[in-house]
Specification:
two-stranded antiparallel ribbon, 53% helix, Tetrahydropterin Synthase, Chain A, 3 domains
Length: 177
């Protein structure tokens, strides 16, 4: 309540600007919490209608108290639904194996042999960023709101719940795959 009042005073009653300020503060507080240990949480599951696609997700937070809240469970369910729909390969860039990156770089560079090296580097970097945005869960546009990434969704819940939240790992099963 106090933060809302301060934001409104700071913007002289401009509601939209106040909301922007509060959202930025939420992102800052989420970044401050990023280093905290997350040893609690839950394993969430999602089985798509018809039983052809299933997801297991480990999502962690700092306390058992937050792990039991409806908001945290809703976040976990939404992320499971997203994984079932979009089929990411990795949680984040830092989980992409070095061998995979090396192989992709070699393939991309081999297809660009007639271009200058500085141009090749920029093209390869751009194509790798595209691979990351399509294959890394946290960088994908959230299926229920494509204007925000999954990382943005998690950050909004960190700001709301007041604890660090980490998507540890997931497994997606599809019948016949």
């Amino acid at each position: 309540m106090g933060a809302c009042k301060k934001a409104l005073e700071q913007t002289k009653g401009e509601m939209e600007e106040a909301i922007t300020i509060l959202r930025k503060k939420g992102e800052v507080s989420a970044e401050k919490k990023a280093g905290r240990e997350t040893s609690e949480g839950l394993i969430e599951q999602y089985i798509h209608t018809g039983g052809k696609v299933g997801v297991l997700l480990e999502i962690n937070c700092e306390t058992d108290f937050v792990a039991k809240t409806e908001d945290f469970k809703k976040l976990a369910k939404d992320i499971c639904l997203h994984i079932a729909a979009v089929n990411p390969t990795f949680v984040s860039r830092d989980q992409v194996p070095e061998a995979f990156l090396k192989k992709e770089k070699e393939i991309l560079q081999a297809s660009l042999t007639n271009k200058p090296s500085h141009v090749v580097e920029k093209i390869v970097e751009g194509k790798l960023n595209k691979i990351f945005s399509e294959g890394c869960l946290l960088e994908q546009p959230f299926v229920k709101n494509p204007e925000q990434t999954v990382q943005d969704l998690v950050k909004s819940f960190v700001a709301t719940l007041g604890e660090n939240i980490v998507i540890k790992r997931f497994t997606r099963y599809q019948l016949g795959e």
